[in-house]
UniProtKB/TrEMBL annotation:
InterPro entries: GH, GH13_cat_dom, Glyco_hydro_b, O16G_dom_2, SusG-like_C. GO terms for biological process: oligosaccharide catabolic process. This is Glucan 1,6-alpha-glucosidase. CDD domains: AmyAc_SI_OligoGlu_DGase. The lineage of its organism: Bacteria, Pseudomonadati, Pseudomonadota, Gammaproteobacteria, Vibrionales. Keywords: Glycosidase, Hydrolase. It holds the Pfam family Alpha-amylase. Belongs to the glycosyl hydrolase 13 family. PANTHER family: ALPHA-AMYLASE FAMILY MEMBER, NEUTRAL AND BASIC AMINO ACID TRANSPORT PROTEIN RBAT. Signal peptide: none annotated. The keyword Hydrolase applies. Residues 15-407 form the Glycosyl hydrolase family 13 catalytic domain. The keyword Hydrolase applies. GO terms for molecular function: alpha-amylase activity.
Length: 547
């Protein structure tokens, strides 16, 4: 079976974290006018979709993932008129805007919750999840919050607990209530009418939860709810929908993204990400096991077949910077950033570029926990150090995996505060901005930026990148990740050295050539691929061959 072609199959998405992208009014916080001023930059990069992290009205307990009005813009980001201008100006440049839809929970300052907490018989009470205290007054069960502590918060006014999988200012909506479903659908349709290009659905695999049975992710009611959402909102529109699904296996991903099931276009899966978290704990980082990493990436490439669609990403606003995580942020920063880009962008699926990735921005290592702003980082630092973990150990883990690594302001140039703002930014800039910034990248024809630009162009011009089959090569090798993509016209051989060491390889006959059509490389282009090949540190290239 072939997939019916969709516009998002060969799209490349750029994720903007508005707070950290560009500050037009110099209040230290990025905003919508800042984004508008950089649309030409994004057009030049070649992306045709922007995923906008939340810009709705919010008390910003979790930087906008706690929404108090879904149909208004947070004043620090601008106004609804700015949003309309962004949509219009993006459209002029053939760029679609994907909104971040956060409907597992709202803010506790959302009017629904404000009403709900007033009394047990308030009409909005059942919009949220309430339970009686256990005898003695303690929380109904042991369920923990993803941001630390209990998932239950006692509410004095009515003497019951409400459920929150994230912070206590993010009460979970009760998706068993048809009124909640209806309100959310109505709001989604309102955004669709504004001309958006789709939705990224925040932690959407949590909405089918059955908490009394201890089920949070992938609950039994999840898929019927999503099919109903599809039918009531975007199903008959040509939109990109991507679900954030931490618990997805390839089988589960097919449930979400098989077009015949009418749910989403694709999902984000995190199996490759959590490999460097010991026992799933991001505050216990462990080194990358490349063979395991290759196995996971290969599994996802092969197993979705034509019954689902991959999204391809290395980092986002919740994850460390890719060049720091899987590459080398020192001597081989440029080479390794390009290698990682090639590895990802020549796989099958829709690639996502997180702001600053295209110039090789790195993690940050602030000396003091007081310089961090992320609620998750601060909560866990406190919890773990109170429970006996040494502050230095916890700070090292924060340097490795804190979400603030991705959230330091974007580096536009080498002026004060990286050209992000002339005011003190809400989170300090990474001190390496004088070397790593957009202005410098644009001036250097061999920069990481132009490497991304080239990869994006290649995807638009070579169908084998979009639809070709995927076959791993050197499967058991512990330093290189290589694969061949094939369609009726071409074979595309992609070879990547994931280490700072030289690697000598014996090439199989089928991949040798005297007249290589090298379409991208991070050192000089290869003309010949003989029996033996020596790869330089982090060397990466792709060669196009006849089928
Ligand atoms: C996932 C988002 O990506 C993250 O930033 C947020 O904190 C949680 N969902 C809660 O909305």
């Amino acid at each position: 079976m072939k997939m019916t072609p969709k516009w998002w199959h060969d799209a490349v998405v750029y994720q903007i974290y508005p707070r950290s992208f560009c500050d037009s009014n110099n209040d230290g916080i990025g905003d919508l006018q800042g984004i508008i001023s950089k649309l030409d930059y994004l057009k030049n990069l070649g992306v045709n979709v922007i995923w906008l992290s939340p810009v709705y009205r919010s008390p910003m307990d979790d930087n906008g993932y706690d929404i108090s009005d879904y149909q208004d813009i947070a004043p620090e980001f601008g106004t609804m008129a700015d949003m309309q201008q962004l949509l219009a100006e993006a459209k002029q440049r053939d760029i679609r805007i994907i909104m971040d839809l956060v409907v597992n929970h709202t803010s506790d300052e959302h009017p629904w919750f404000q009403e709900a907490r007033k009394s047990k018989d308030n009409p909005y009470r059942d919009y949220y999840i309430w339970r009686q205290p256990k005898e003695g007054g303690s929380a109904p069960d042991e369920q923990g919050s993803i941001f630390g502590g209990s998932a239950w918060q006692y509410d004095e006014q009515t003497g019951e607990y409400y459920f929150h999988l994230f912070s206590k200012k993010q009460p979970d909506l009760n998706w068993e209530n048809p009124k909640v479903q209806h309100e959310v659908h109505k709001m989604m349709n309102w955004w669709i009418e504004q001309g958006i290009g789709g939705f990224r659905l925040d932690v959407i695999d949590l909405i089918g939860k059955e908490i009394d049975k201890g089920i949070t992710g992938n609950g039994p009611r999840l898929h019927p709810l999503l099919q109903e959402m599809n039918r009531a909102t975007f199903g008959d529109k040509d939109l990109l929908t991507v679900g954030e699904t931490w618990g997805a296996t390839p089988e589960i991903a097919k449930l979400f993204s098989n077009p015949e099931r009418e749910e989403f276009s694709m999902v984000f899966q995190f199996e490759h990400i959590t490999l460097t978290w010991e026992h799933g704990d991001k505050w216990n980082p462990i080194p990358l096991d490349l063979p395991a990493f290759k196995k996971v990436l290969t599994k996802w490439q092969v197993e979705l077949e034509n019954e689902g669609w991959n999204s391809l990403f290395w980092n986002n606003h919740d994850l460390p910077r890719v060049v720091s995580k899987y590459g080398d942020e020192g001597q081989y920063r440029v080479e390794s950033a390009k290698m990682l880009a090639t590895t990802l962008h020549l796989m099958k699926g829709t690639p996502y570029v997180y702001q600053g990735e295209e110039i090789g921005m790195t993690n940050v290592a602030f000396d003091s926990i007081d310089d961090y702003r992320d609620i998750e980082t601060l909560n866990f630092y406190k919890e773990r150090t109170e429970n006996g973990v040494a502050p230095e150990t916890m700070l090292a883990a924060v340097h490795e995996n804190s979400r603030d690594n991705a959230r330091t302001p974007m580096h536009w140039d080498n002026s004060y505060n990286a050209g992000f703002s002339t005011n003190q930014p809400w989170l300090q800039v990474n001190p390496n901005y004088p070397d790593i910034n957009v202005a410098a990248a644009l001036e250097d024809q061999s920069s990481i930026f132009y490497h991304y630009q080239k990869l994006i162009q290649l995807r638009k011009s070579l169908p084998v990148i979009v639809h070709g089959t995927f076959e791993p090569v050197f499967e058991d090798h512990d330093k290189v990740f290589a694969y061949v993509r094939s369609d009726e016209q071409h074979r595309l051989f992609v070879l990547n050295n994931f280490t700072a060491e030289e690697v000598v390889l014996a090439l199989p006959e089928s991949l040798r050539t005297d007249n290589a059509e090298c379409i991208i490389a991070n050192y000089e282009h290869r003309q010949q691929l003989g029996e033996e090949l020596t790869l330089k540190p982090y060397e990466s290239f792709a060669v196009l061959m006849p089928a």
